[in-house]
């Protein structure tokens, strides 16, 4: 069977969290979910697997249509997030137009949250719920036998006029057993990042599931239980990438530093194998310490992304972050001591947040002296506690996301927490915060002195123009 996994063009994406400066970081990441699927199918089936990443190849919809027509797949798989739903449906429409007999399979967090609405969408034949590797293979092996598929856990489809939902398959326990993402199926040397020092970078996951309970975040298809790969398995993937010519990595675990012993083990294994690499991680300030930072630096850590989110204890409590400003100050100080660059995430527009709270957050942001900041307007996303709070309190007047899931249209505008501010006012604050941070003369001089390549300068100059509204 010919299986084509497609990362759709990003022509109609709903930008719910209004990124300004880090937009380029989002645009050129390998589609790891699809590459994990491709690798699993390559290792455990005889199906003919191909991957198209429309974004990194900069394909238009017309060009994508020609590629699909030429390959004439039996099945197309699409990862579906709520913010990319319009592009997913446009891609499904193209697939059915140029290859009517092709079955379209949707997976990802959106269909996990809204299975009934998703299976009723035009051109969707099957859904895969939760982690997709095993369920998708089982679907392919029995795709023409819906009675048999009714006994495969993790699927949704229509049969005899009824929606069949076979439930959620248990999470994969042994992540070491999964093959590494099939990077060889995409033009992997084209991936880059604003934060990278070179022109070739890849992302990777070393764990799944997040044990923390922040009210603004949800990963429904991966679960809340932290599952991790062993240090040896993680470094095996790093070493394989090095052999491919990739030496920079963005480790995209929600929190890489949950398990201290594992982090130290990964660093030791990198040192033992003498890998000359650079990598960024995401961490919480309450999961790192001085000894860990020293190990990370020695192993090649060239950036830590900390989710600070707010500069007041009041808003941190609303967000259920479980951290304090004093911890943030101390950890940022320690990280600077080890000369590891820092990207700090902040949000504005949280429940109960006032103008004074936002101004305090901006002052704290500048005081912390991170190398980069990423500020967003909080969007109550589907499945999050804040979205439920908004519906229950009446701040959110309707179930906006469910309506969009049932009828995705380009006119849809993501909701915001409209207790004190309009969306326009929050966007004005957003730009103000970026300008206050990035347009300080001292900051600009420091960044210029740290540039290492022409490519890095071009990426960061482009991002700077976006802040000024000129990009």
Explain this structure to me?
The chain has 471 residues and is an alpha/beta fold. The chain has 2 domains: 2-165, Cobalamin-binding domain (Rossmann fold, 3-Layer(aba) Sandwich); 187-378 and 416-467, tm_1862 like domain (pyruvate-formate lyase- activating enzyme). Helix content is 41%, strand content 15%. It has 19 helices and 15 strands. It has helices at residues 23-27, 32-44, 61-71, 85-98, 109-113, 115-119, 133-141, 146-149, 231-243, 260-273, 290-299, 313-318, 325-337, 355-368, 385-393, 400-406, 423-438, 441-450, 454-467, and strands at 2-7, 48-53, 75-79, 103-107, 126-128, 155-159, 162-165, 202-204, 207-208, 227-228, 248-251, 278-283, 301-309, 342-348, 372-377. Strands 2-1-3-4-5-6-7 form a 7-stranded mixed sheet, with helices on both faces. Strands 8-11-12-13-14-15 form a 6-stranded parallel sheet. α10 links the parallel β11 (248-251) and β12 (278-283). α3 packs across α4. The radius of gyration is 22 Å and the shape is globular. The termini are far apart.
């Amino acid at each position: 069977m010919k299986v084509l996994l497609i990362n759709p063009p990003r022509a109609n994406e709903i930008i719910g969290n209004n990124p300004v400066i880090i937009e380029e970081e989002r645009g050129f990441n390998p589609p790891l979910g699809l590459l994990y699927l491709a690798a699993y199918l390559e290792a455990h089936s005889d199906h003919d697997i191909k991957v198209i990443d429309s974004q990194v190849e900069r394909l238009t919809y017309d060009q994508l249509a020609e590629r699909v027509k030429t390959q004439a797949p039996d099945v197309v798989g699409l990862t579906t997030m709520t913010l990319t739903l319009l592009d997913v449906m446009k891609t499904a429409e193209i697939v059915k137009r140029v290859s009517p007999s092709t079955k379209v399979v949707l997976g990802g967090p959106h269909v996990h949250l809204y299975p009934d609405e998703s299976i009723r969408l035009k051109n969707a034949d099957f859904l895969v719920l939760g982690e997709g590797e095993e369920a998708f293979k089982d679907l392919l092996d029995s795709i023409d036998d819906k009675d048999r598929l009714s006994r495969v856990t993790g699927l949704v489809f229509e049969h005899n006029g009824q929606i069949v939902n076979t439930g959620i398959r248990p999470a994969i326990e042994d992540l070491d057993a999964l093959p590494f993402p099939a990077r060889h199926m995409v033009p992997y040397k084209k991936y880059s990042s604003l934060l990278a020092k070179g022109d070739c970078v890849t992302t990777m996951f070393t764990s799944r599931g997040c044990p923390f309970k922040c009210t603004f975040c949800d990963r429904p298809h991966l679960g809340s239980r932290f599952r991790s790969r062993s240090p040896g398995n993680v470094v095996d993937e790093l070493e394989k990438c090095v052999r491919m010519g990739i030496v920079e990595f963005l480790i995209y675990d929600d929190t890489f530093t949950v398990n201290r012993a594992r982090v130290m083990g990964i660093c030791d294994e990198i040192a033992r194998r003498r890998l000359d690499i650079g990598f960024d991680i995401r961490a919480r300030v309450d999961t790192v310490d001085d000894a860990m930072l020293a190990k990370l630096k020695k192993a090649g850590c060239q950036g830590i992304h900390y989710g600070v989110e707010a500069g007041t204890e009041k808003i941190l409590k609303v967000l259920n972050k479980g951290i304090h400003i004093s911890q943030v100050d101390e950890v940022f100080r320690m990280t600077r001591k080890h000369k590891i660059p820092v990207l700090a995430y902040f949000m504005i527009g949280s429940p109960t947040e006032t103008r004074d709270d936002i101004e305090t957050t901006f002052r704290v942001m500048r005081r912390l002296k991170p190398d980069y900041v990423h500020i967003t307007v909080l969007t109550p996303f589907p499945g999050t506690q804040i979205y439920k709070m908004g519906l229950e309190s009446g701040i959110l007047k309707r179930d906006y996301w469910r309506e969009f899931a049932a009828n995705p249209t380009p006119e849809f505008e993501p909701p915001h927490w409209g207790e004190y501010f309009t969306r326009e006012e929050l966007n004005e604050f957003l730009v103000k915060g970026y300008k206050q941070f990035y347009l300080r003369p001292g900051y600009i001089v420091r960044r210029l002195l740290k540039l290492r390549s022409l490519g890095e300068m071009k990426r960061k100059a482009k991002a700077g123009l976006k802040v000024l509204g000129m990009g």
